[in-house]
Automatic annotation (TrEMBL):
Keyword Lipid metabolism: no
Highest rank taxon of the organism: Eukaryota
GO MF assignments: oxidoreductase activity
Pfam families: adh_short (PF00106)
Keyword field: Oxidoreductase
Name the UniProt record assigns to this protein: Short-chain dehydrogenase/reductase family protein
Keyword Signal: no
Family: Belongs to the short-chain dehydrogenases/reductases (SDR) family.
Length: 331
């Protein structure tokens, strides 16, 4: 186990990296068991896991591809040879896979102090999962919703008189894009003739914030929840089908698919992007701010769009999702 840093530590800012934030909150990270979804090399989840592994007791990394999951584990251990890494296979597009993964987690001896719902897809063509769900909704909301609730006993087991477990949802500033309220009909009755990739992404990222708020409400103080925008980061997500033209049209990627660098486009490195996630997971100043939304490692509740903070929408989304997965959850 690495020694806790002794240097003077500073409050995380928009330029902080995940590694710097982990060093700042090393005392909070030390001894914790953390589960991070979506940890492929080159992504935010991997960088989050790599940084946390320096001090955490155990980091559970997840993915739907065994080979890629092993690559991430090897890379993290190369950087942190003493790190305890537990690879977990989970396909968020399959409710059966989610249930199987949750069952595996619940059999572990260790409790889960922090769950980071990081995995997501974005701006992809219409596609239904084996469960009949639209892929955005399944990966970004329904899968994480079910997984979070199924492993809640393991999360609650980490609570103590001095510690409240945390659940973090990686959302996006895209949740605030203008448009109608969150379309729950697209969740329950997916229709390719009414489908729009940007709208689907917007609504599922709003769903992340709404779920965080409703989870905190229903847990009645037993769990602290947070959501966040990591920033504009060039990751392997930009290479997926259908994504490139949308971002080129938005003027953030050039004709070759590379980031357009300008003062008006605040690109972040992957390390800087993962910093806000780590802040949400460990910053002790957030203990009295449950349900907060973060940007640039700071609370930014004023930047949450009305459709993503409406209590009635949050309640309806939770109830509809419970019906979809065929299970109700109580705390």
């Amino acid at each position: 186990m690495a020694e806790l840093p002794l240097e003077n530590l500073t409050v995380p800012t928009s330029n902080s990296t995940a590694e710097e934030v982990v060093n700042t909150f090393a005392a909070e990270v030390k001894g914790k068991n953390v589960l991070v979804t979506g940890t492929s090399l080159g992504g935010l989840g991997f960088e989050t896991s790599r940084a946390i592994a320096r001090y955490a007791n155990m980091v559970i990394i997840t993915g739907h591809n065994d080979e890629r999951l092993k690559l991430s584990e090897t890379a993290i251990k190369k950087d942190n040879p003493t790190a305890k890494i537990y690879p977990l296979l989970i396909d968020l597009t399959s409710l059966a896979s989610v249930r199987k993964a949750a069952e595996e987690v619940n059999k572990l001896a260790e409790p889960i102090h922090v769950l980071i719902n990081n995995a997501a897809v974005g701006l992809i063509p219409f596609k239904l999962t084996s469960d009949g769900l639209e892929l955005h909704w399944s990966t970004n909301h329904v899968g994480p919703f079910l997984f979070t609730n199924l492993i809640m006993p393991k999360i609650l087991a980490s609570a103590s008189p001095t510690y409240t477990p945390r659940v973090v949802f990686v959302s996006s500033v895209a949740h605030a894009n203008p448009g109608d309220p969150v379309n729950l009909d697209a969740l329950t009755n997916p229709d390719p003739t009414k489908y729009s990739p940007p709208v689907a992404y917007r609504d599922t990222k709003a769903a992340n914030i709404l779920t965080a708020l409703e989870l905190f409400k229903r847990a009645k103080g037993k769990v602290n929840t947070y959501s966040l925008h990591p920033g504009l980061i060039y990751t392997n997500a930009f290479e997926k089908d259908g994504t490139l033209p949308i971002f080129q049209g938005a003027g953030v990627l050039d004709e070759n698919g590379k980031p357009i660098l300008s003062k008006s486009i605040p690109w972040k490195s992957i390390g800087q992007g993962a910093a806000t996630t780590v802040t949400a997971a460990f910053d002790p100043s957030l203990n009295d701010k449950p349900g907060a939304y973060l940007e640039d490692c700071q609370v930014a509740n004023d930047k949450v769009a009305p459709h993503a903070s409406d209590p009635e929408t949050a309640r309806k989304l939770w109830d509809v999702t419970e019906k979809l997965v065929g299970e109700s959850f109580a705390f």
